[in-house]
Design a protein that fits this description.
heterodimer; A: mainly alpha; three-stranded antiparallel sheet; 20 helices; 46% helix; B: alpha/beta; Beta Polymerase, domain 2; 3 helices; 7 strands
Chain lengths: 456, 165
């Protein structure tokens, strides 16, 4: 029999006599108090959950199968839809796994961009998680505040990627476009506002009697079980294990910035909340430092001349007036309307096997055109050598791994996503058994289940 | 321990059960004979110098249409192990044929293997001997076939089944 919960001790409720018949109830797949499509079959004795079975798969979209039918870059939009709260991290992790398979390295500037954008996404994810779990406990104000803060950050993401949710910003070999002008100032302003919100939330929740009654000691998992269930991310750090992929195997620019791995020791919902709150501050620290030290990267300004805009450049190329065109500088406008040569060179690898040439080169020179064709035509495209590679990045919920296998063709032979929120869901029944039905809600919230990556 | 030393330790302790090893892209990998899999995984977890306490990922690959491997064993079950203590990784692989697609379970070693193995069974039809409750994880019980097998067409449709009452 499960141990008595803290709540039972406080309220003096009995744990049931065990003589009556237990009742089996199904929660979900569509339940107003659950922000995700899963089904929990719970055997209850009074209000105590005695046994639980978690059913998943309601959002299965055959991500891994779909990846096998298109080119390597075609999987990028699918990765957006894994963890749709922080899609940038998925983009970059997948792209990096393919780069590992190809044996190429992205530019320094691109590494910083990936770091900065991943950290902004992580803050978005934690804001959503904490906000939503607080709302489910009745703290609607907190939810509104946090969604407000997330809006500041999503505006930043929109500035860079052109989209809010399905951003498809990563590319094998780089990113889609450079950071816009004045981005650093906007990030600092948004972080200032986010910090104010976090401060407010701290004052509203941390130490709040109602909140703590619902969170402290609830949904706890021991250190041994957390490790046995391969749980990573905030849930692992909440039991006192300071494992973070960004620290354990630093990639991108994580080894060039100063930050800490926040941990707690109790492993209950409250510890998870505290870890997430602390991590948001660390993420903002990383992004700020990376923005301050981001390298410019090569920009070719090799001659004097009046810059022309990309559209005119492309038109000239289409008309065959290509003489001297490649030497012309192009007006920088790093938005998503027209790629331009100099901006693209800063953020993508110099590897013609992988990276599409800028439109100006594709239209302006026969080499560029051939390069473009070789990457676009069916049967050509990106073709990593035969082999396999596993790349792990720190997603918002833990280790996000991509295991990719190539048969030497232009399509992935196998793409496996190691979803960070599957292990906590596998262990969810251990967290809720012996607790009350009402405790299921904050526990489920603290796990931060994201259907997209759980069911793929 | 670096990757080469891990593979060396595995070879020393398991002898001829280690069929082949490689370190492609710095991911150190050992292909293990199926009969020695439980022993190998226990060794990985319990050996003080190896100390792989986390089963980070468990998946499979169907090599039916892989150039040059059409006739070999069809499935590879892939274990990614990580050691919190030593911060190192290793990949263990087991090859099985289609008509004998059975692998010993890892549930007694790591409880997470429960769901991972259910997913592999669901997607590839590889059975895990000794698994306490080998049900489908993502698809529904009435689903016919195993969708991630290479001979399962991507456009095959199956009737949707309503909720069980």
């Amino acid at each position: 029999m499960a141990e008595t919960t803290r709540r039972e001790i406080m309220l003096g409720e009995g744990s049931g006599t065990g003589t009556g018949q237990n009742l089996t109830v199904g929660m979900g797949p569509a339940h107003p108090a659950m922000h995700g499509i899963i089904r929990i079959l719970a055997e209850i004795d009074g209000e105590i959950i005695r046994k639980a079975d978690v059913e998943i798969g309601y959002l299965h979209r055959a991500f891994e199968k779909d990846c096998e039918v298109g080119g390597w870059n075609n999987a990028i939009p699918y990765t957006d839809r894994l963890n749709y709260v922080s899609p940038l991290i998925n983009n970059f992790a997948y792209a990096n796994a393919v780069e590992k398979l190809l044996g190429i390295d992205v530019t320094e500037r691109c590494k910083y961009i990936r770091t900065i954008m991943s950290e902004i996404s992580r803050v978005c994810d934690h804001l959503t998680c904490v906000g939503a779990s607080a709302m489910e406990l009745g703290a609607f104000t907190v939810f509104l505040y946090m969604i407000k803060a997330r809006e500041f950050l999503w505006e930043l993401i929109e500035d860079v990627t052109g989209a809010r949710l399905t951003i498809s910003y990563g590319r094998v070999g780089g990113v889609r476009a450079d950071l816009p002008d004045g981005f650093e100032a906007r990030v600092r302003a948004a972080f200032k506002q986010t910090r104010e919100v976090l401060d407010e939330v701290h004052r509203l929740l941390t130490g709040n009697r109602i909140f703590m009654d619902r969170m402290v000691g609830v949904g706890a998992l021991s250190r041994e079980e957390t490790i046995g269930y391969a749980i990573t991310g905030p849930l692992l750090r909440a039991v006192g294990v300071g494992y973070d992929v960004r620290r354990a195997s630093p990639h991108w620019a994580y080894d060039r910035v100063e930050w800490e791995v926040p941990t707690q020791k109790d492993g209950d919902n409250y510890s998870r909340y505290l870890v997430r709150m602390a991590e948001m501050e660390q993420s903002m620290r990383i992004a700020e430092q990376a923005l301050a030290t981001i390298p410019g990267g090569p920009i070719n300004v090799d001659f004097q001349g009046r810059p022309i805009d990309p559209d005119t450049y492309v038109d000239l190329g289409k008309q065959g007036k290509t003489e001297g065109l490649l030497l012309l500088p192009i007006t920088l406008s790093p938005n998503l309307q027209g790629q331009n040569r100099t901006a693209l060179e800063r953020v993508t690898a110099h590897d013609k096997r992988v990276v599409l040439p800028p439109k100006e080169t594709a239209y302006g020179s026969i080499e560029g055109l051939m390069n473009h064709f070789m990457l676009i035509m069916e049967g050509y495209g990106i073709r990593p050598p035969q082999g396999e590679a596993y790349f792990a990045s720190e997603g918002a919920n833990g280790e996000l791994g991509f295991y990719v296998v190539s048969d030497g063709g232009d399509r992935p032979y196998r793409v496996r996503c190691r979803p960070p929120c599957l292990p906590p869901m596998a262990a969810l029944h251990r967290m809720i058994e012996g607790e009350m039905i009402a405790d299921l809600i904050p526990t489920f919230g603290s796990v931060n289940m994201i259907g997209g990556e759980l069911d793929r | 321990m670096d990757g080469a030393a891990i593979l060396e330790r595995l070879r020393a302790r398991l002898g001829s059960s280690v069929i082949e090893t490689h370190a492609q892209h710095d991911d150190h990998t050992a292909v293990i004979d199926r009969a020695a899999l439980p022993a190998s995984l226990s060794l990985c977890r319990d050996d003080a110098d190896l100390g792989f306490d986390i089963l980070m990922d468990l998946t499979a690959v169907d090599y039916q249409k892989f150039p040059g491997r059409e006739d070999g064993p069809r499935f590879e079950v892939v274990y990614h192990l990580y050691s919190l203590r030593w911060n190192h990784r290793v990949r263990i692989k087991v090859r099985v044929d289609e008509d004998d697609a059975v692998v010993p379970t890892a549930v007694p070693l790591w409880p997470i293997a429960d769901w991972f193995e259910r997913e592999v069974w669901d997607m590839f039809g590889v059975r895990f001997e000794g698994h306490p409750d080998l049900r489908r994880l993502l698809m529904y019980e009435e689903f016919v076939g195993h969708p991630l097998r290479k001979d399962y067409p991507i456009n095959r449709r199956q009737p949707l089944i309503g909720p069980r009452i």
